[in-house]
Batch of 4 targets.
Target 1
Amino acid sequence: MHVPLVVLGGGPGGYAAAFLAADLGMAVTLVERDERLGGTCLLRGCIPSKALLHVGRVLAETREMEEWGVHFPRPTVNVDALRARKDKVISTLTGGLGQLARRRNVTIVRGNARFTSPNTLEIAAATAGGASQTLTFDHCILASGSRPARIPAFDIGSPRVMDSTGALELADIPESLLVVGGGYIGLEMGTVYAELGTRVSVVELTDTLLPGADRDLVKPLQQRLEKLFEKIHLRTKVVKLEDAGDSVRVHFDGPDGPSVREFSRVLVAVGRRPNSDGIGLESTGVNVNAKGFVEVDDQQRTADPHILAIGDVCGEPMLAHRASHQGKVAVEVLHGEPAVFAPRAIPAVVFTDPEIAWAGLTENELAVSGRVVEISRYPWAASGRAHALGRTDGMTKVLVDPETDTVLGVGIVGPGAGELIAEGVLAIEMGCSARDLMESIHPHPTLSETVAFSAENYFGLATEIYRPRAEAAK
Ligand code: FAD
Ligand code: NAD
């Protein structure tokens, strides 16, 4: 069969691309090996983790209410019901995607695809006994995503050693859990299990949790996690895992020397690898870099004129919203529009408690580039709403170009930071000045005010913060 456009992969990159192509009147075929659409994000990533984090937050609030004089009896968790409710969220959303695909006349082909030439895919049947088929195409948008990175030495054949997919299955609420990797997944899933009652420890190779995030944003999270988790081991390596029957024996090597401990389960969350191998890219003109990412230009074109690539398979940050935006750009390019993927800000959100979010320039990047910017922080201890919520541990900051007052970056730590950062994205994309942020009337009392107030503070004019005249008023 010959098709004009095939999208390989039905994750947030692939289905966004296929749906836009259909909306623009293009005939589109989507190949997906999974039974359901949604990819990593919907089936085993963003959505199930956020459903479980929601439950974790509610459990935390029952404890936090004590200081307001409200006592809840210790909640009990029915893990089977919780798992079923989480799975219902997934099935509702993936069912919705299936309906949307049908209504748009997107042809779905189920099977495992592999390039056999720059414009041919062999698609192995997804079910035993099913027929494989050959698809030739004018263009392919490669959206094959990523998978958990594995550490071969940790493959000890024990079901107690999990990756993020296993952790999200929620087989049980283990008595203890070791999370290897203090990144996005480790801290989000560690939070889920800790709130459900598991004694959680985290081991991180570097000297900080979330090495990609600014230190001042990580600090309030780390302080809270030090209370929620049993132990956080930084600058520590897991040397060996051993199957000890109903536990896993873990050998550590850290600043205090070697040690050994047993855990009911271990979650390995040390990053993700692009799905660029095993799909026949060597039969095409596509270039793959040393880290396994497919190389693309700002129109998502690979070195092969037939093939574009989007999402996790073509680089970092591996985030769903980046994948879907790149998918739309790729389709617009094929539709003949002068589209490019050149965002000023791709927001990042870690959905822990407190949440951490940033967009645009970060302080970590400044350290490398040496660029001169002014940073204005607004501590949530000065926010009335934060006091009313009992959450004064937050902070909002803006990174501003002192020459032009243009907002270059926004960073937020605190509950709801993931929602609040959207304003920062808009400000950066629209080239707003700090004055624009300051003079836009924000509703009171809300945490969104902290974005405007951090801009006020840049001018030394924040109502709730006193700065002596000498250093105030630009
Ligand atoms: P994917 O979603 O990985 O989809 C690729 C699809 O291609 C899959 O369905 C796969 O089955 C299919 N495929 C691959 N190879 C073939 C083949 N040869 N033949 C046929 N089909 C194939 N991101 C966020 O932005 N926010 C979050 O909160 C967030 N939370 C996450 C939590 C977890 C636990 C994890 C693991 C990830 C999370 N992410 C989050 C990252 C997000 O899931 C990914 O960035 C996103 O799914 C990437 O989309 P994609 O379309 O590029 O690839
Ligand atoms: P990550 O890159 O965020 O974190 C991995 C961590 O493991 C790093 O801190 C790294 O220093 C550490 N590490 C690496 N090797 C180690 C080892 N041998 N021992 C101990 N620590 C080690 O990766 P992740 O948490 O696996 O998540 C993968 C990707 O998925 C993220 O980078 C992100 O793109 C995406 N994701 C996003 C969200 C979100 O948007 N909220 C949530 C989950 C995942």
Target 2
Amino acid sequence: MSGARRPTHMRTITTVAEMTTARDAAAGTVGLVPTMGLLHEGHLSLVRRARAGCDTVTVSIFVNPTQFGPGEDLDRYPRDEKRDLALLRDEGTNLVFMPPPEEIYPPDFDDWVEVGGPIAERLEGEHRPGHFRGVATVVARLFRIVRPDRAYFGEKDAQQLRVISRLTADLGLPVEVIGLPIVREPDGLAMSSRNAYLSTDERSRALSLSRALAEAEQSVREGERDASRIRAAARRTLDAAGVGVDYVSVADEKTLAELETIDRPALLLLAARVGATRLIDNTLLRLPRIARSP
Ligand code: AMP
């Protein structure tokens, strides 16, 4: 393995057939970073980790239609292919898989991967019906086509990461799923392709999400253990900024079951609408005793 190697050539692939052949010819371990494009530092942090840990780095750019519900932003999802490819070339990406939808979903496609249980049914699963079915199906397709040894996902989409880990374990897929921390703007806003939708005023109101998370972290550090008080405080911060709350959840970090008492590592998960833009963010609420352990 030679993680620091910078390839001189990056290949862009649009068909499943060509991707299959390229995978067969790929040297050593293969890392996959699935994305929907309009890349930012959050995506690039995943690519860098793949570059450091794998011989062949594959990045997919695919705005997956099946994970968008009716009335969501599929038709206007921001794209900038030229810029994405330049960024990926600079990071030493070997293969970019950017198929048109019909390559992933042929006309007669009608087989779906559905992940059950609280990990998939609550939160995003509840507010975006069918979302995780679309995510699980496309990830299973990508894993089958690219056959990565490792796949890299961001904690930004904490529930998605858990759904994919669960799916991979339950189906015994031979892929190591690796989750990496949220990358934020200097003022705290979690990086997201959807931030491109925000007006100046909306962007400043969107800061209420990361502010609510930071306030919760602080109150847990100060000894708060009552999850309902944490949820209420976060809601107040979001309400005060005039953003529409979809959910505020304090949940077991692993199972995503809602907690009443923070007696173990918990995720505070938020989804809110700032104007027409729906944003999600989360943070791990660690108990001080756990934070101090090595
Ligand atoms: P997307 O293009 O939004 O589907 O995201 C592709 C991958 O990048 C997913 O695994 C996301 O969780 C991850 N990602 C998106 N935003 C961030 C961020 N701010 N920090 C870390 N990872 C991110």
Target 3
Amino acid sequence: MIKLHHIIESQQFNRHFLEKELFPLAKEMEKIAKQGGSDILSGKKMFTLFYEPSTRTRASFEIAMSLLGGKVVFSTENARQFSSAAKGETIEDTIKILNDYLPDVIVLRYDEQGGAKRAAEISRAPIINAGDGAGQHPTQALLDLYTIQKEINKIAGTSIAMVGDLANGRTVRSLSYLYVKFPEVKIYFISSESAKMKDDIKDYLKKHNVWFEERNDLREIASKVDIIYQTRTQKERGALLEEHEKTESFCIVNQEVLDLMKKDAIIMHPLPRVDEISPEVDFDPRAAYFRQAENGLYVRMALLKMILL
Ligand code: CP
């Protein structure tokens, strides 16, 4: 089994790792979780340091550690306010000090792009990037790919519509890097003019000869794709996105979109969902977003085993 250290960005993983290492181990972890857990990480200590709010990522990492017999011995859910960051301490100093308290792994959500990389540069303990501002969220992308494989039994040759606030969302950035490790995939970026995918990702796709197209109306392509990956407007990133809000009705997943979709397509969303997926969609079997969040637990259990054993 591969030994992992820091998890900072999606580009560090390849197709072999996903298909031959991570996906089989995540499947095994699902069985372990449903049987009540194990003690393979007994004696291992996790610190979780979150500068931005989280439900899924923090809960699933902490529960994953507990299910494998390890302990979460330090946890802060609002480090910007309740750690010495409030007094002006840098992330580098915080990580340096926390290392002296002997963690085996640190799960870090930082509120600026590049925060996890800065932390990894000075940390002896492995750093897991649980989201860094509008940068990346690599463990989300890993669980997203696992979900696609589990739900539609293939990734190569599929087509995806990434929808919503693509300018400010980190999950679509990490997913773009990882999805294109698979051959013959197609990406539609669907957003308003003010929320378009940033050039660095589009340049990466062009460099790797990946087919992509930009549109502003989900209804035009809903019948063509295997996956609709919806995202919310990232209001906390400070962008007003007035134009985006005026046109976002073209990007909502609702009954009209369900009626257009292929019968075996799926709808994903990293969550939290606000109003960009109508509640009636939850009752359609193609709504995979709650199953996707559940998969996060199994994928994070697998990652912790790869890092800590
Ligand atoms: N998908 C995700 O990162 O959710 P949380 O912000 O709740 O962790």
Target 4
Amino acid sequence: MERTKVIDLLRREDYGAEVNVKGWVRTKRGSKAVNFVALNDGSTIKNVQIVVDVNKFDDETMRNIATGSCLSVEGTLVKSQGAEQSVEIQANKIEVYGTADGYPLQKKGHSMEFLREHANLRMRTNTFGAVFRIRHNMALAIHTYFHEHGFYYWNSPLITASDCEGAGQMFQVTTLDLKNPPKTKDGEIDYSQDFFGAQTSLTVSGQLEGELAATALGAIYTFGPTFRAENSNTPRHLAEFWMIEPEIAFMDLKELMDLEEDFIKYCIKWALDNCMDDLQFLNNMIDKGLIERLQGILKDDFVRLPYTEGVKILEEAIKNGRKFEFPVYWGCDFASEHERYLVEEHFKKPVIMTDYPKEIKSFYMKINADNKTVQGTDVLFPSIGEIIGGSVREESYEKLTNRMKELDMRLDGYEWYLETRKFGTCPHAGFGLGFERLILFVTGMSNIRDVIPFPRTPKNAQF
Ligand code: 4AD
Ligand code: MG
């Protein structure tokens, strides 16, 4: 008999039909005579109820039907008596594919920490099922948005010899014998003998290569894994995360901000339009304000705020008695407490902050006429802080190389990148969205470790 997915089965009304469903047992309850089994196959947050007449099945089968076990059930589709579901299945034949003695996820309400230790199984809980269905939907929304707006999906390499953000937070990639690496005459490690003939690392951003593509294809986006060896043990940082990086020729600062806002609203609307069952579950169980907060994002225009204005607002707040842990002064890099004050308390809506001091931003950002600030943008979100970082790029070869020299960056190794500025340079801009930060926002989960299947964080690469 052909298998029906639970999501399709729950929409059917052809009572009396013989059906087959397969899935994992969430719960079993009932009496000596009749048991009710909640079966879930991952196609939806909802379970299908299987009504089991105990007398029809042998003792071993009844014993093996337990939380975590996997079943194939054939039975009759009937209208449900209970209010929770419209249909249920009266079981005629049950095959136990897999028993689950000692299954660790027995009771409801396991802590997130406990579930992280069982990340190999946690996808089978309602919460993580919802999170990962939403994660899939957000990926689909992102590809659809860019495709519909004339962007090409394009891929940057993951292994690279350059540090895009210049922050030195890179994981080295090497096949050299770490116990006995080859040395040059000066006693340095001789990377010419390494696999790639140079010192290489995992990429912190695909932007530099993305810029090359934008100056050929016009508008591209990357969507791939990104690696940062920053020792930040926070609920917002991963050592391996996914980033979406569009890069667009002939785009200025205003158009960049318009794109950031339109894009992120599209993703959130997609979730509201396509993931309501999962969102409702998360709204009930994880974060009571979730759906309202998502709808709120769509209502308002984002605030567009130059950094210098932001400093003034924070200084004013301090004057009026607001306390912050970190000091505020022109030139400081805002801490998340400052960003959250602006977004959650002062404006009560997302803020796109622009025109940062050049000292706290990356080398490639376009320098303003004041020669002090750059055309960088951070999109700041409630409860998340920075969700997008982007900028207009410095397109002048001279200004860009001067800035790199000021920062003591070596130009050799970046010739391939600098050639975009030598040959037909053009104004262009782009941004990076942290995929997991978007998922955090859309699901209402509070720790970034719980929106990626197997988180990579300092001292943790389990699974
Ligand atoms: O602001 P970032 O560092 O910007 C770039 O990498 C640029 N090259 C992007 C571009 O213009 N093409 O990172 C972009 C976003 C951040 O806003 C944040 O959402 C996310 O990536 N991000 C992280 N997410 C999880 N864990 C980390 N350690 C992250 N670091 C950055
Ligand atoms: Mg940033």
